[in-house]
Amino acid sequence: MRHLIILFAILSTVPSVAQQSISLEECYRLVDRNYPLAQQTGLLEVQNQLESEAVATAQLPQIALDAYATYLSDVIEFPLAMSGIEPLNNDQYRATVSVNQLIYNGGATKASLDLKSVQLKAKQKEVEVGLYQLKKQINQLYFSVLLAQESKALLQAKEKQLRAKLKEVRSGIKYGVLLPASDKVLEAELLKLKQQFQETESNKRALVETLSSLIGKPLNRETVFESPLVKTDLQTDVNRPELELFELKKKEIETSENVLSKQNAPKLLGFATGGYGNPGLNMLDNSFQEFYTVGVKLNWKVFDWNANKRQREALAINRDIVETESETFKLNTSIELNRQQREIEKIESFIASDQEIIQLRKEVLESADSQLKNGVITASAYITELTHLYEDENTLIRHKIQLELAKANYKVIKG
């Protein structure tokens, strides 16, 4: 009893390993989260916050400290009638603290903050576009793994059929119905199958490792890849993140124009300066004094040689460039969707033909099977017909996977 308790305790510490599975949609989610480019979304937000805080400091008091000491080769001299006034020193000293407070700048600070906000959205959308473009690569890898997975299952079915037939042939040889070397042909075919298993497994391993690196999740050869049933609405309405990016770029240009319009607005500032020096504000008092000044200052750039106007004209041209890029993208996407739709229709017709061919191949193989049992044909002839059936079934599987890949790509192109 004690040994059973110990055995149960040991078994309870061994983690149960469930068979891992993954879907195409999960691969999409993982690449959006784990691909290195995805980290830029958070970094851009932090960067934008720091830049916005820097812009917002324009509304805070600006404090400056100045200090200097000078020696003058000549100073003001007073007439003899004012001889009671002590002459100025040639060495002079002054230290001041100045505070400037922006009162009004025509909304330039707010416009700059709005521009930073739009720029953040545009940069984050660029990251989203970059991640979205990885979906086609994921599709290619995922469906290639599916094809390897299905090919392996087909090889296993063929192996099972060959082993059953080998058993029958050996029985026929034993009773003199078939030629003695008939089983050697089947054994050779089984060895070929073993090579095909190894090749399929090697290809699948390479594909799985590449996909695992892309999505940032450990996968192994035991991972089951779920077969997606891609439902595709063959409409040409495009909903891609690139279109949103073009709109954000236009918004960024509009906001930049607003910033430019505020640049030449009058700026009103309040200022205060306090200091200590010799002489102070009273030049006739030749001693160290405290002093201060307060006031307001208006700064208005009335003429800038049309620099602001030229900048706005350049932005207008940039808007036209973005518009042409948007139209080009829409046209190319429409062409790609049409080509992908034709591809889907072509593969669907291939699948219909494949099914008819396979049915005919099965009938031929049944006849060959009967002839082999009766010694009418050799095992080589039977292998030939079995191989034809296997190749056609493999073609059907490949076309089915290609169809799902084409649908998935159509969905990605459409958005």
Task: Describe the protein's architecture and organization.
The protein has 415 residues and is of the alpha+beta class. The protein has a single domain, classed as Up-down Bundle (Outer membrane efflux proteins (OEP)). Helix content is 64%, strand content 12%. The chain contains nine helices and six strands, in the order αβααββαααβαββαα. A four-stranded antiparallel sheet has the order 2-3-5-6, with no helix packed on it. Helix 4 runs antiparallel to helix 7, helix 5 runs antiparallel to helix 9 and helix 8 runs antiparallel to helix 9. The longest helix is centred in the last third of the chain and has 67 residues. It starts with a helix and ends with a helix. The N terminus is likely disordered.
The CATH architecture can be given as Up-down Bundle
Largest sheet: 4 strands, antiparallel
Structural class call reads alpha+beta
Number of strands: 6
Backbone shape: elongated
Q: Give the overall average pLDDT.
A: 89
Span of the ends, CA to CA: 64 Å
Which strand order does the major sheet show? 2-3-5-6
Residues in helices, as a percent range: 55-70%
- Note the run of SSEs as H and E: HEHHEEHHHEHEEHH
- How many helical stretches? 9
As a whole number of angstroms, the C-alpha radius of gyration is 41 Å
Q: How many structural units, i.e. domains?
A: 1
Given as residue ranges, the uncertain stretches (5+ residues, pLDDT < 50) are 1-17
CATH C-level name:
Mainly Alpha
Per CATH, the superfamily is Outer membrane efflux proteins (OEP)
Beta-strand residue percentage: 5-15%
- CATH fold title: Outer membrane efflux proteins (OEP)
